[in-house]
Amino acid sequence: MIHRYIKWGVLIVLALGAPVLMPAIKTQLAMLMLMITFALTWDIMGGQMGYNSFGNIVFFGVGMYVTAVIQRDMFFTAEEYETMAGALGAIDGTDYLTGLVIGLAASIVVCVVLAAILGAGILKLRGHYFAICTLGLGIAAAEIAGGIDYIGAGSGLVTPTFPNEYLGDRGYFFYYYFLVLAVVAFLVLSWLYRGQFGLAINAIRDDEDKAEAMGIHTTRYKTMAWCISAFFLALAGGAMGNLVGFIDPSEVAFAGATYGVWMVLMAILGGKGTIWGPVIGAAVFHIMQELFWTYLFGWQRVALGALIIAIVVFFPEGIMGFVRARWPELLGHKVDHQTPESRIVP
């Protein structure tokens, strides 16, 4: 027990001190925390429930736009905002935080309601039909956002300038924001998986027909799972727009070809259906990606494609599955060596 507390203490100290020890890469560290949130929220449906969704990016993008529009409209008209782009730094820390908090709260409401509405309709689909439908949602959302002038259309939307003179360095601010978000998501999901919710979605993953026959309201639990994902992705998207400073509908907000795919790959790499797998997968994937972009410039996309192939071919059960099969003792499993064929005892 003492060793466990020591491990948690070391992990907390490293997480809190990382941007101070490595200030040159604090923005990349903030992105790492975002990737962990991506992987954790995708694994709710893709790992724990067995529904491979490519539509989670919709809630990320909607949260980003809702937060930015509220921040803009609280202090400017749309016309003033466009003509005063160079003066946006005049927003003080109190106004910036007020707009950000209200925007994030509104994005949660919008995204959770949207998830409930969409879920009630398309979560009745199963297998590849559901996956294709959710893929279409992300593409459609990017096209719709690109045609709405109120949010910048295809030209994108500039978010309010971060007031460094009031709130300190932007990199530190958003690193600790995303760190708290990832930790809260991890703890909340750990608690949910240990209760009735976790049992229900695991039953859906194992055999949905039998789960329904046992009296589990499968559509209700599937919708709840999507709403939980939408909750955390709304908070992630709203902050990400402010970190980047510019929202492009297809390259940032509804970036299905990057963020939408990466959240799937990270969970698979670490080991989907586990609580630590998405965290480990996100860390490994993000570090490898940063190394590719730093040392393989010009070939980084080729290297990333090769990494994706390697993940699918060599780690079908993820890193956690690989470790469980070869060194089960590391994960707390007991191995019975007395039988002809050693077996893992939970």
What's the tally of helices?
16
- By secondary-structure content and strand pairing, the structural class works out as mainly alpha
Number of strands: 4
What is the makeup of the main sheet? 2 strands, antiparallel
- Give the integer mean of the pLDDT values: 86
Summarize the structure in words:
The chain has helices at residues 2-21, 26-46, 56-73, 78-83, 93-122, 127-145, 164-167, 170-193, 196-206, 208-213, 218-244, 249-253, 256-270, 277-295, 300-314, 318-326; strands at 157-158, 246-247, 334-336, 343-345. It is an all-alpha fold and 346 residues long. The chain has a domain at 28-255. Strands 1-2 form a two-stranded antiparallel ribbon. It is globular and about 60 Å long. 38% of the residues are buried. The model is unreliable at 338-346 (pLDDT under 50).
Element layout with pairings:
Blueprint: H1 2-21, H2 26-46, H3 56-73, H4 78-83, H5 93-122, H6 127-145, E1 157-158, H7 164-167, H8 170-193, H9 196-206, H10 208-213, H11 218-244, E2 246-247, H12 249-253, H13 256-270, H14 277-295, H15 300-314, H16 318-326, E3 334-336, E4 343-345
Helix pairs in contact: 1-8, 2-8, 2-11, 2-13, 2-14, 3-5, 3-6, 3-11, 5-11, 8-11, 9-11, 13-14, 13-16, 14-15
Summarize the structure.
This protein is mainly α.
Provide the descriptors you would attach to this structure in a database record:
346 residues, mainly alpha, two-stranded antiparallel ribbon, 4 strands, 72% helix, 3% strand
